Amino acid sequence: MGSETSGVRLEVRNLSKRFGSVVALEDVSFSVRPGEIAGLVGDNGAGKSTAIKLICGYYRPSGGTILWEGAVTELESPEHARSLGIQTVYQDLALVNTLSIARNFFLHAEPVRRLGPVSFLNVKEMNERTAQILRDIGIKDLNPTTPVSALSGGERQAVAIGRTYYFGGKLLILDEPTSALSVKQTQKVFSIIQEVKAKGVSVILIEHNMIHVHDIADRLVVVRHGNVYGDYAKADVGVADLERILAGAR
Description:
By secondary structure, the chain is α/β, with parallel strands linked by helices. The chain has a single domain (2-96, 152-246), classed as 3-Layer(aba) Sandwich (Rossmann fold). Helix content is 34%, strand content 28%. The strands form three sheets. The chain has a six-stranded mixed beta sheet, with helices on both faces. Strands 2-1-4-5 form a four-stranded antiparallel beta sheet, covered by helices on one side. Strands 7-8 form a two-stranded antiparallel sheet. A hairpin with a 2-residue loop joins β4 and β5. It starts with a helix and ends with a helix.
């Protein structure tokens, strides 16, 4: 496999995106390895969201190369990216409040049992598999039958992350996962991210909170004005350094 020979799960080289005369992203290069958390940081409009939409197949690049597990890959759509194992959790989480945790886990992929020509949802299987998935990522206190509307913000994030992990996520892209969460909820989400990292999942974390991203990331990729300004190991850059870089200081 490419990932075994290169040691890199995703690499983007000189990635660019233009919308007419507007350059949203130019010559962006970075990579992420299995079991690594890369923090993608930058101010609003820096190009983070554009980079993510290229990686998850929503946009096609104007230039540059995407390598997935060592092979040059043209991502044709979000469905194509998901089929490879690139999973994105956006801020809205795409959860249905009126449905249970288990129903949200298996939305549009529900296991069924058949009685002659008639198919029925296999609710028992959904609940059992959901409970096991939650335990696998360190969540033991959520009942799969609980409606999502009764969950806290941190618990909703846990459900969204668990769902993407279960359905074959090799690269998990998290868009501001701690936005509007309490300190306790943030720490819970971080513990879940560490659990999936320990299982070899790569993580790209988009964050505005420099303390949060520095706390959990292994590497910090700083994007400014559509370019990668720096790619740092956590040990080589502090929170104050990141804030100065984002403010425009060298």
